Amino acid sequence: xxxxxxxxxLSFPAIAQAEPLKxxxxxxxxxxxxxxxxxTGASVxxxxxxxxxxxxxxxxxxxxxxxxxxxxxxxxxxxxFTTGHDDERDKRFKWIEPLLIxxxxxxxxxxxxxxxxxxxxxxxxxxxxxxDDFSYSFLTANEFxxxxxxxxxxxxxKKLLNNRIDLMMTSEKTFEAMKAQGKGVExxxxxxxxxxxxxxxxxxxxxxxxxxxxxxxxxxxDGTQDRISADYGLRPNR
Length: 238
Fold this sequence. Notes:
The protein has 238 residues and is of the alpha/beta class. The chain has two domains: 21-101 and 195-231, D-Maltodextrin-Binding Protein, domain 2; 102-194, Periplasmic binding protein-like II (D-Maltodextrin-Binding Protein, domain 2, 3-Layer(aba) Sandwich). The protein is 38% helix and 29% strand. It has ten helices and ten strands. The chain has helices spanning 2-11, 42-54, 65-74, 87-90, 119-122, 134-141, 153-161, 172-180, 206-221, 224-231, and strands at 21-25, 33-35, 38-40, 58-62, 78-84, 94-109, 127-130, 147-150, 167-171, 185-200. An eight-stranded mixed sheet has the order 4-1-5-10-6-9-7-8, sandwiched between helices. Strand 7 (127-130), helix 6 (134-141) and strand 8 (147-150) form a beta-alpha-beta unit. Helix 2 (42-54) crosses helix 9 (206-221). Keywords: Signal. Residues 20-236 form the Solute-binding protein family 3/N-terminal domain. Residues 1-18 form the signal peptide.
């Protein structure tokens, strides 16, 4: 009987091997970006610590946002971050949050004089963002007529600084990081606050989602999240 059991065990060596969770993100400093060939950022550091705490295998990859977002919707064992959580996205994913709590802001090129006082006034201008970005959902939901889409935030910023668009949408904390880096941008219109986190395919087991959520809550409770935010020049999540 012992020999039979041993033979069966050898026949199924992969059963005990957990499939790595695919964690996808985009170039969107200071939350997730490539530096000297390595993926880093305020959100990336939190995610690495979460996965280490629960001892779960994962693969991390940077892609254009639209591709990363689509894969998380359609592929098993896949999550995307740092993802804004709104009503439209709520039921399409399982969520671990908050990696970030922040406001959205419309940003203008410094000295441009573009000064919309309301959302309705901003509709006169061409607004830049990224396909499937949270801000794109906001713009389409509010029926903005002139939306310019780019592959990533850096491309949108270049369009703004080269006068190819009038305004761009980003998070308030990202805007503050841009200012600290000497980018020639100014706030034009501050919008409402939102939560951001990991959006996971509905196939990801609830037990794993629960462990990841608990690991994130531990990072928040012991001050690690605030320390990481400070390391990247960001205000704490409050």
